[in-house]
Prior knowledge:
By secondary structure, the chain is an alpha+beta fold. It has helices at residues 59-80, 138-151; strands spanning 9-10, 16-20, 23-28, 31-36, 42-46, 49-53, 83-90, 95-99, 102-106, 113-115, 121-126, 130-135, 161-164. Strand 3 (23-28) and strand 4 (31-36) form a beta hairpin. The longest helix is centred in the middle third of the chain and has 22 residues, at 59-80. The chain is elongated and about 70 Å long.
Amino acid sequence: MSRIGRLPIDIPAGVTVSVDGRDVAVKGPKGELSITVAQPIEVAVEDNQVVVTRPDDERESRSLHGLTRTLINNNIIGVTQGYTKGLEVVGTGYRVQQKGSNIEFALGFSHPVLIEPPAGITFTVEGNNKVTVSGIDKQAVGETAANIRKIRKPEPYKGKGVRYAGEVVRRKAGKAGK
Length: 178
């Protein structure tokens, strides 16, 4: 049995979880999320807990058991607390500023890079080199942060670029001088 999959998920106060066939909808104070459960996995709500079960020990069922439980748990955490991902802009002349709900980066290109937030995602800028991506969907927050980082990844010689908050960039030695 999957160690993660067999754990029941406690439903906090103010959150409602409804199971409609294969669809699991989670509604909370920050919003509403839904997930479609893969075929062999069963989800049930029993006395203020969500229980995820699998019918057999087939390879596919075992792999989907823990995944489904974790995705539902992520949705419950998302509608109660939300998710955030921090980004730092490092480099001389590299900066970021808020333009309404959008953010604008100056990253050494000949033009500024304007990023519009996808639905359900908000950007906040602290100073001129820190950005926080926040939202209720863990996958969307992570993907948006990764797409922003992809604009100018940290390079290994000086460490310039956009990096995750707390990310350690592995540095290389430059050319050996005479």
